[in-house]
Specification:
Helices cover 0% and strands 43% of the residues. By secondary structure, it is an all-beta fold. The strands form two sheets. A four-stranded antiparallel beta sheet has the order 3-2-1-6, with no helix packed on it. The protein has a two-stranded antiparallel sheet with strand order 4-5. It starts with 5 loop residues before the first strand and ends in a 10-residue tail after the last strand.
Length: 79
Protein backbone atom coordinates (compact mmCIF):
# COMPACT_ATOMS: atom_id res chain seq x y z
CA UNK A 1 0.00 0.00 0.00
CA UNK A 2 1.13 3.50 -0.75
CA UNK A 3 -0.70 5.28 2.06
CA UNK A 4 -3.21 6.77 -0.38
CA UNK A 5 -6.91 6.61 0.56
CA UNK A 6 -8.32 3.25 -0.54
CA UNK A 7 -10.98 0.63 -0.02
CA UNK A 8 -11.19 -3.06 -0.87
CA UNK A 9 -14.28 -4.53 -2.54
CA UNK A 10 -15.10 -8.21 -3.02
CA UNK A 11 -16.09 -9.62 -6.38
CA UNK A 12 -16.68 -12.88 -8.22
CA UNK A 13 -15.97 -13.70 -11.86
CA UNK A 14 -19.40 -14.42 -13.36
CA UNK A 15 -18.37 -15.25 -16.90
CA UNK A 16 -15.59 -15.11 -19.45
CA UNK A 17 -16.52 -13.27 -22.63
CA UNK A 18 -14.84 -14.49 -25.80
CA UNK A 19 -14.08 -11.74 -28.34
CA UNK A 20 -16.14 -11.47 -31.51
CA UNK A 21 -13.02 -10.50 -33.41
CA UNK A 22 -9.91 -12.65 -32.78
CA UNK A 23 -7.67 -9.58 -32.53
CA UNK A 24 -9.66 -8.27 -29.52
CA UNK A 25 -8.90 -9.49 -25.97
CA UNK A 26 -10.99 -11.91 -23.92
CA UNK A 27 -12.85 -10.19 -21.05
CA UNK A 28 -13.87 -11.26 -17.55
CA UNK A 29 -17.19 -10.08 -16.14
CA UNK A 30 -16.95 -9.45 -12.40
CA UNK A 31 -19.91 -9.01 -10.03
CA UNK A 32 -18.94 -6.53 -7.30
CA UNK A 33 -20.58 -7.34 -3.95
CA UNK A 34 -22.38 -4.42 -2.33
CA UNK A 35 -22.62 -2.36 -5.52
CA UNK A 36 -25.95 -0.99 -6.77
CA UNK A 37 -27.88 -3.59 -8.77
CA UNK A 38 -27.59 -1.83 -12.15
CA UNK A 39 -23.88 -1.08 -11.67
CA UNK A 40 -22.49 -4.22 -10.07
CA UNK A 41 -20.89 -5.70 -13.18
CA UNK A 42 -17.41 -4.76 -14.21
CA UNK A 43 -15.72 -6.04 -17.37
CA UNK A 44 -11.97 -6.11 -17.63
CA UNK A 45 -9.44 -7.62 -20.01
CA UNK A 46 -8.79 -11.17 -18.81
CA UNK A 47 -5.02 -10.77 -18.56
CA UNK A 48 -3.14 -10.66 -15.26
CA UNK A 49 0.48 -11.14 -14.25
CA UNK A 50 1.48 -13.39 -11.34
CA UNK A 51 4.29 -12.78 -8.85
CA UNK A 52 6.83 -14.42 -11.19
CA UNK A 53 5.84 -12.26 -14.16
CA UNK A 54 3.88 -15.01 -15.92
CA UNK A 55 0.70 -14.09 -17.78
CA UNK A 56 -2.39 -15.72 -16.25
CA UNK A 57 -6.17 -15.52 -16.73
CA UNK A 58 -9.14 -15.52 -14.38
CA UNK A 59 -11.62 -18.39 -14.41
CA UNK A 60 -15.36 -18.42 -13.74
CA UNK A 61 -16.15 -18.45 -10.03
CA UNK A 62 -12.85 -16.87 -8.98
CA UNK A 63 -13.18 -14.78 -5.80
CA UNK A 64 -11.45 -11.41 -6.09
CA UNK A 65 -10.39 -8.46 -3.97
CA UNK A 66 -10.69 -5.20 -5.91
CA UNK A 67 -8.70 -2.28 -4.57
CA UNK A 68 -9.89 1.25 -5.31
CA UNK A 69 -7.16 3.79 -4.57
CA UNK A 70 -7.09 7.55 -5.03
CA UNK A 71 -4.33 10.09 -4.87
CA UNK A 72 -4.61 12.12 -1.66
CA UNK A 73 -5.05 15.32 -3.72
CA UNK A 74 -8.19 13.85 -5.32
CA UNK A 75 -10.25 13.33 -2.16
CA UNK A 76 -12.03 15.54 0.35
CA UNK A 77 -12.75 14.99 4.03
CA UNK A 78 -16.12 13.35 4.66
CA UNK A 79 -18.46 15.59 6.63
Amino acid sequence: MTGNPSTILVGTVEKIIKPRVPSEPERAQIAVEGADHLYKELRIENALTDARGNEVQLKVGAKLELTVEADVKDVIKKT
